[in-house]
Design brief:
Oligomer: heterodimer
Radius of gyration of chain B: 22 Å
Strand content of chain A: 15-25%
Number of helices of chain B: 14
Strand order of the largest sheet of chain A: 2-1-3
Structural class of chain A: alpha+beta
Strand order of the largest sheet of chain B: 1-2
Distance between the termini of chain B: 38 Å
Distance between the termini of chain A: 51 Å
Structural class of chain B: mainly alpha
Mean pLDDT of chain A: 89
Order of helices and strands of chain B: HHHHHHHHHHEEHHHH
Largest interface: A-B, 31 and 39 residues
Low-confidence stretches of chain A: none
Low-confidence stretches of chain B: none
Number of helices of chain A: 2
Order of helices and strands of chain A: EEHEH
Shape of chain A: elongated
Shape of chain B: globular
Number of strands of chain A: 3
Largest sheet of chain A: 3 strands, antiparallel
Chain lengths: 97, 323
Amino acid sequence: MTESSSDWPLFEVFLRGKRGLNHVHVGSLHAADPQMALRHARDLYTRRNEGVSIWVVAATDITASSPDEKDPFFAPSGDKVYRHPTFYEIPDDVPHM
Amino acid sequence: MTVTSEPDLQEHFDETIARERRIEPRDWMPDGYRATMIRQIAQHAHSEIIGMQPEGNWITRAPSLRRKAILLAKVQDEAGHGMYLYSAAETLGAGRGDLTGKLISGRQKYSSIFNYPTLSYADVGVIGWLVDGAAICNQVPLCRSSYGPYARAMIRICKEESFHQRQGYELLLTMMRGTRAQREMVQDAVNRFWWPSLMMFGPPDADSPNTAQSMRWGIKRHTNDELRQRFVDMSVPQAEKLGVTLPDPLLRWNEERGHYDFGPVDWDEFKSVIAGNGPCNTQRVARRKAAHDEGAWVREAALAHAAKHHSTERVRVSPEASS
């Protein structure tokens, strides 16, 4: 990310759409500090009641998996079909299962 | 690492596009794709930001509190759309300050439509109806752009644009029920904005050399002429309902094609406006530059304030506690 020195830091914004739902990433914005990021996030991402709660996280604080190592990183779950309920054969006449 | 060499990366990219999957920011992508996306998104973002000006001029002269509140909300949306789009461009490695710099120095373009003046309040209605209507035609297919962050921004934008178009058409309906002078204002605005609206779809397909590559990359879904035709077909019945005449003597239904035929667009005018010679080019960019320059002290002061308070009152609240 090329950021010229005069740019405010970048924050990632997460919204809880309504009670009972997880916060979901909606985009990013620039702000001088976290408090300003929250206010900007309200103005930018909730102009039509899209959220009841906002998280802002400095983009530099996020650690992400690398897309290059996609296959090996997620490989451990690839061959464990027995973690899924469809792995098990149960006769059709067993009720409630 | 499973994919490392350039041919492998290219193959993986091509396969992702072929399967209609999205390219995400940290994926490998060809340099041409990255540069084209940055240019496309930046030009779109700049259009939203410059697009605040023609209508913003009318906020203080709105005829009622209702119209003023609507127009304020609309112009605020345009600012929001610009911000979503700049964010999307930044995921490709473009810097915010750099993008603004390119806009105010004329190195990146914005839509030619915003270089036309708004002469009466009817223009606010016609911009909502025709200009935002054309924008919607252009933008709905971009919700399926192969570049994930752009597609997601477009979904949000399209939802909000619908309000823009409807408020414009309702404004015009209201004026058409008014005095004769008001009806003439509407017709005059339609006369001035119809052809520039058709130009918003870009040059004819024969003069649009990048279309084929953009279609292959999934960042353009229909050709300029297809979208222009779709817009004409949508607008004609809306104009009839409104009771205005579209300023094109060659406009008529073609039974055989199942579309409206329309007259030739003045592409010389389009090229001249793009080249910087439209009625308002200089003023639009000058105003954006002034706002940027005059806001410099605010941006610096906010950073200084943040730096000062960072050391003294850094309070950490866990996500669960704050949610």
